[in-house]
Amino acid sequence: MSQPEPNVDEVVRSIAEETDTPTETVSKMYADTLADYRHEARVFDYVPLFAAKKVRDKLRHTSKHKH
After folding, report:
1. In whole angstroms, what is the distance from residue 20 CA to residue 4 CA?
2. SS percent in the chain: helix, strand, coil, step 5
3. Angle between helices 8-19 and 47-66 in degrees, nearest 10
4. 4, 41, 46, 47: least surrounded by Cβ within 10 Å?
5. Which Pfam families does its entry note (predicted)?
6. Are 8 and 51 in contact (CB under 8 A)?
7. Is 25 exposed, middle or buried (0-12, 13-18, 19+ CB in 10 A)?
8. If we measure between CA atoms, which residue out of 48, 47, 57, 50 comes closest to residue 21?
9. Are 59 and 21 in contact (CB under 8 A)?
């Protein structure tokens, strides 16, 4: 049984708030990351979760180096 797709707007808004990043930036990064994962995936159930985690981690890492 496959996982339901998360609401992209909610995911983007959540990441934007957590990382203090503009939603437009997060939206673009999420879409690009999701496309990369889907291109290489054989199983798609958790692709949106992996994409959200990667974007969140990348933004957190970037923000730590700015301070």
Report:
1. 27
2. 75, 0, 25
3. 20
4. 4
5. DUF3562
6. no
7. middle
8. 57
9. yes
pLDDT tens-place string over residues 47-58: 999 999 999 999
End-to-end CA, the chain? 44
Q: Residue 56: left if φ>0, alpha if ψ -120 to 50, beta else—which one? A: alpha
CA 21/CA 23 separation, integer angstroms:
6
> What pLDDT digit, counting tens, does each position of 30-48 carry?
999 999 999 988 888 999 9
* Cβ atoms within 10 Å of 47's Cβ, excluding its own: 19
DSSP secondary structure letter of residue 45:
T
